Amino acid sequence: MYVAVKGGEAAIHNAHRLLADRRRGDRSVPALRLDQIVEQLALGVDRVMSEGSLYDRELAALAIVQARGDMIEAIFLVRAYRTTLPRFGYTKAIDTGAMLVERRVSATYKDLPGGQLLGPTFDYTHRLLDPELAAGGDIAEPLRRESEAEAMPRVSAILAREGLIEPDGDMPQDHVPGDITREPLEFPMARDIRLQALSRGDEGFLLALGYSTQRGYARNHPFVGEVRIGEVELEIDVPELPFAVPLGSVRVTECQMVNQFKGSAKAPPQFTRGYGLVFGQNERKAMAMALCDRALRASELGEDVVAAAQDEEFVISHSDNVQATGFVEHLKLPHYVDFQAELDLVRRMRAEYEARENPAKVEEKREAAE
Amino acid sequence: MRGQEARDQAERKALMATLAQSSGDDIARLWSEAGLPSEAELLRGPETGLVTVRGRIGGGGAPFNVGEATVTRATVRLPSGQVGHCYTLGRDKRKARLAAIADALWQEPVHREAVETRLVAPLRAALVEARDRRRAETAATKVDFFTMVRGED
Question: Which band of pLDDT confidence, cut at 50, 70 and 90, is reported for residue A199?
């Protein structure tokens, strides 16, 4: 017999009210404004946009406040919000070569057109906590250097001239880009679909997998051909206008990973590539994505699949932190009936076990009970 | 396409790009300063939805979907019957409506001059200034390599 049990309505209501209070915290401390989060916690906002898979700074900032700074909860909120909006269409593919570059470095070429631009980076800082920030002093304006606007071709284009690197990834002529927000995941999957999943994948998960490839689990000899961060313009074709409509700009981070490859039955010795492209400024994520993209191309390049990072189904099925947290966290919800059933089962198995292992003792027990 | 038509389309696209890049507050401020007419019938929206942003594998290869972005669009009709459109990133409905009216006004010869000089020109100047400043700030972080001469020569 199954008996439905209800309850907890008042407890839930009061818990949410308590959450709102704790979220606000000490009322004598000024409440955060969204523009403060957008401006001063910008990289947190970028992470929520990237993994929430929605480019909208104010919404990401709202999600961060609402989630009390819990990034995965914030990402969950953004994903949920996305589903409430109609879709107007697909943009034309962005041109990262035409980016208004804010940072661009290459670990493979010292001198390259456009140069090495460090931009606003944590690199080369000493990672010492700064008490002056806590005191809230004035911050100096950045320096400027007037220079001619210089073209900044992607580093991959430079390497391509020698013919020692594979071209940008092509798909068959009639291939329509897959969309994981429209169709369920199917394995094996094409590289375009994999990249979509990786771009919204969990930073920590992809970082760990990328790291594992460097430590020898699917070693693939990576170099950062280039990391670039900056704004790119978006355009979309719409039926009511005879030209592609400009929508404005978004900031993205792109990583071109270049990997030495000794050749296989399927491909000659050359440099192969992994690609990373994420919303906002997040080169750690873009680099990890590029490492994973390259590792996941093992079958395509005729490499043995021996490590977790090369296992497409493993990586892609577990890269989404909203799905992951949903399944892990659901374990704390009431499982009273399931557990009762398991409890009965374990009691019965234990009784059978004891009867088998120690018949005399069971007999004794029974007699004592009588 | 004839030359004039192509030029008009390029200019209209540039207008839309400027409006899309500018903030709603700047557009509204210049609008009232310029005294542009804002009377228009809304044919669609303003409504907020999503566009899926596409990138290319390796930067220049086959397209793939990166993620979504919020976009607000509006279509308006002026009392004269002229129709204007706007699509812009974000969720600013007032901005989308004004930008659609600007597009409609721009298409009317009597208003084009005012839209260009009193709205678009100052917006464009501010955008160019912001872009140049950003470029100069980035340029100041460019690495100048130099060679250390070692040993005796």
Answer: very high
H helix intervals, chain B: 3-21, 24-34, 93-106, 109-114, 121-139
Q: Give A56's contacts in chain B (Cβ within 8 Å).
A: 69-70, 90-91
Q: Is A117 exposed, middle or buried (0-12, 13-18, 19+ CB in 10 A)?
A: buried
CA A285, B137, B70, A98 dihedral sign is negative
Quick one: CA dihedral A96, A100, A105, A111, positive or negative? positive
Closest CA to A119 of B138, B57, B114: B138
Beta-carbon separation of B87 and A236 below 8 A: yes
The shares of helix, strand and coil residues in chain A, as percent rounded to the nearest 5, are 45, 15, 40
- Inspect the interface and report whether the beta carbons of B51 and A91 lie closer than 8 Å: yes
Does the ipTM surpass 0.85? yes
- Give residue A347's pLDDT band: very low, low, confident or very high (50, 70, 90): very high
Quick one: closest CA in A to B16, which residue? Answer: A246
* From A82, A146, A246, residue closest to B68, measured CB to CB: A82
Q: What is the pLDDT of residues B34-66, one digit of tens each?
A: 889 989 999 998 999 999 999 999 999 999 999
Quick: pLDDT tens for B61-107. 999 999 999 999 999 999 999 999 999 999 999 999 999 999 999 99
Which distant-in-sequence residues (6+ apart) come within 8 Å of A182 by Cβ?
Answer: none
Nearest to A156 among B52, B58, B87 (CB): B58
Following CA atoms A323, A326, A331, A333 in sequence, which dihedral angle do they give, to the nearest 10 degrees? Answer: -160
> What is the nearest CA distance from B66 to chain A, expressed in angstroms?
5
Query: Cβ B68–A234 below 8 Å, yes or no?
Result: no
**Smallest CA–CA distance from A181 into chain B, residue:** B67
Q: What is the pLDDT of residues A115-165, one digit of tens each?
A: 999 999 999 999 999 888 888 889 999 999 988 777 888 888 777 777 888
Give B54's strand partners: B65
pTM exceeding the 0.90 threshold for the entire prediction: yes
**CB atoms inside a 10 Å sphere around CB A186:** 11
Q: Using 50, 70 and 90 to split pLDDT, how confident is the model at A102?
A: very high
Among the partner residues A97, A116, A279, nearest to B143 by beta-carbon distance: A116
CB contact under 8 Å between A115 and B134, yes or no, is: no
The residue whose two tokens read 């044919």 is: B43
Question: Per-domain residue ranges for chain A?
Answer: 14-82, 96-122+149-326
CA distance A88 to chain B (A): 5
